[in-house]
Amino acid sequence: MSGSTDDIENLIALMAKLPGLGPRSARRAVLHLIRKRSMLLSPLADAMTQVAISARECLNCGNVGTSEICDLCQDDRRATGELCVVEDVADLWAMERAGVFKGRYHVLGGTLSALDAVGPEDLRIPQLADRVVSEEITEVILALNATVDGQTTAHYIADQLDGQVRLTSLAQGVPIGGELDYLDDGTISAALRARKDL
């Protein structure tokens, strides 16, 4: 490989690490970006630089935004007493795309997993318990993925919050083994409307 293509090969290698892109897809994407340099590559590079500087995790809910407290947490209209607990930010964004939930969110940052040595102290479960009290939460909706780890985490949280608040979970529409980020908006909407007590 000649020195003149090292930067391009490095970009391809980095792109190939993104979810959904392998080496061949990354190569095609990079070639497309280079061909559309002024329309895509330069603006994309500028946007990525800006996001690298400004992106941060919301101190309250764990969402990703550009301020210490995200727009969702700052919106007083969302102080409905409902708190939707999700595994990660991608799940929060999937719920928001569906446009049916008008309360606030809490991002755990993962699920309990004995295999990966992830315990309750590694997730944002203590902060969840604090928010239930400080924000006068009346319902916690456990919108965790329908996986073994997701359900284990849901049961753990239910045990921790038992008697403090109404606990519900997503119902019909979420297949066993399914992940929120891959579901269509109609499925998420139906599942949220048909949530049930744990």
Sheet with the most strands: spatial strand order: 4-3-5-6-7
Q: Helical percent range?
A: 40-55%
Number of domains: 2
Which fold name is given in CATH as the topology of the largest domain?
Answer: Dna Topoisomerase Vi A Subunit, Chain: A, domain 2
The CATH class of the largest domain is Alpha Beta
Structure in words:
The protein has helices spanning 6-15, 23-35, 37-54, 71-74, 89-98, 125-134, 148-161, 185-193; strands at 56-57, 64-65, 82-86, 104-107, 139-142, 166-169, 196-197. The strands form two sheets. It has a five-stranded mixed sheet with strand order 4-3-5-6-7. The chain has a two-stranded antiparallel sheet with strand order 1-2. Helix content is 44%, strand content 12%. It folds into two domains: 3-54, RecR Domain 1 (Helicase, Ruva Protein, domain 3), CATH 1.10.8; 75-197, Dna Topoisomerase Vi A Subunit, Chain: A, domain 2 (3-Layer(aba) Sandwich), CATH 3.40.1360.10. The mean pLDDT is 91. The longest helix has 18 residues, at 37-54. It is of the alpha/beta class and 198 residues long.
